[in-house]
Design goal:
Blueprint: E1 12-14, H1 17-29, E2 34-38, E3 44-47, E4 49-53, E5 58-62, H2 70-74, E6 79-85, E7 88-94, E8 99-101, E9 108-112, E10 117-121, E11 128-129, E12 136-141, E13 151-158, E14 163-167, E15 183-187
Antiparallel strand pairs: 1-10, 2-3, 2-6, 4-5, 5-9, 6-7, 7-10, 8-9, 11-13, 12-13, 12-15, 13-14
Length: about 190
Amino acid sequence: MFNDVEAPQPPKVFNTPLEIAANLRMLQESHDPLIITFHERSQRFQSYVVEVDRDNNVLALDEMIPRDGERFLENGEPFRVEGFHDGVRIAWECNQPLTIDSSGDVRCYRGTLPEEVTYHQRRNAFRAALKLSQLVDIVLDGDKLKGVGAIRGKLLDISATGCKLRFEGNIEERLQLGQVYDKFAASGP
């Protein structure tokens, strides 16, 4: 039985420049990928935080993947940014236009720091991440797995309540949300 301290916490909204910069810097230093979605568009884009300058109120994001999201940026369309750091969701809205900067070694998008950032620790158990050089091989199998044969992948992190796995290719058709699979095997590096 979990007590209230161990239960998932509701989202926190940070709105001071110090809190906002600290959370964005955490995403930058960990090189955590960001998911960018433009309002009323279904396509998702990936980017990274490449600069956080609290003194000058500047945020820079790496160029989007795929790059065709840049045309929405050039049109000044607002977008939502979402990143995850150690199981914590860090998200914000970008309603101010960003400028495309290709003057340095890296092409990036510059704008002002967001006015608020949502910080949501959704898990009630600490996740132990594995080093990329020491990922554990896993095999997922069972009667409830759609298709033929087991699915092989890598274990990215693990906690008392679950784990994060990575698979090659698109296996979305073979898995069902919320389904419990009865055969899981992990082997060390």
